[in-house]
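Hello, quick one for you while I still have it in my head. A protein chain has come my way and I'm curious about its shape. I'm sending you its amino acid sequence along with the backbone structure tokens. I'd be grateful if you could look everything over and explain what you see. Here's the protein in full, and shout if anything looks odd to you:
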Amino acid sequence: MNNILEHRTWRYATKKFDASKKISHQDLETLLEATRLSASSYGLQPYHVFVITDPEIREKLKPVSWNQTQIKDASHLIVFAHATDFGEELVDDFITNLSDTRDIPLDGLNGYAEMMKSNLLGLPTDVKASWAGKQVYIALGNALQAAAELQIDTCPMEGFQPEEYNRILGLTDKNLNAAVVLAVGYRSQEDETQHLPKVRKSKEELFTHI
């Protein structure tokens, strides 16, 4: 089995973390950079990522996360929050970054900017939020796989109250909504689920070649 499949077989949704083990600064930076480099529609990245280590905040988040122990015991808690609405600034900021990064005059990007604005800005607010939420999961997937390559354990979590996360983290005022949480750290030897075989559909059931 090659490393790509080994890493994906090794990872599992960690139910119990070893609270005494912390991710190194270097590995955390690598994990976050892999997340930053994720694909995104138009490259716009309509989300923000919060890395939470403050024990007081995590203590507040635990009861609104079904009291799951990962919230406190993981080395770091990563909250992916997507934009609930946006205007021209989302595209304008991206175009400025594109101009600076690739040394392209801004006026040479006007057509591209107008195309994105015409496709996105007229959408209803709920459709904008849904689209932005989908982008979050692309970033989450990259984070999961990067963590596996670093031999860092993870547990992606949707079992929490988004409105309470928004309140505790002050997201509503930033036009953000907590979409998914990723607990990262190292598995406890007491976590029995690490020994269970991975359950997935067979190739024959999952894939159709046309």
Observations:
- The two ends are 26 Å apart (CA to CA).
- The mean pLDDT is 97.
- The chain is about 45% helix and 15% strand.
- The domain at 3-83+137-195 is CATH 3.40.109.10 (NADH Oxidase).
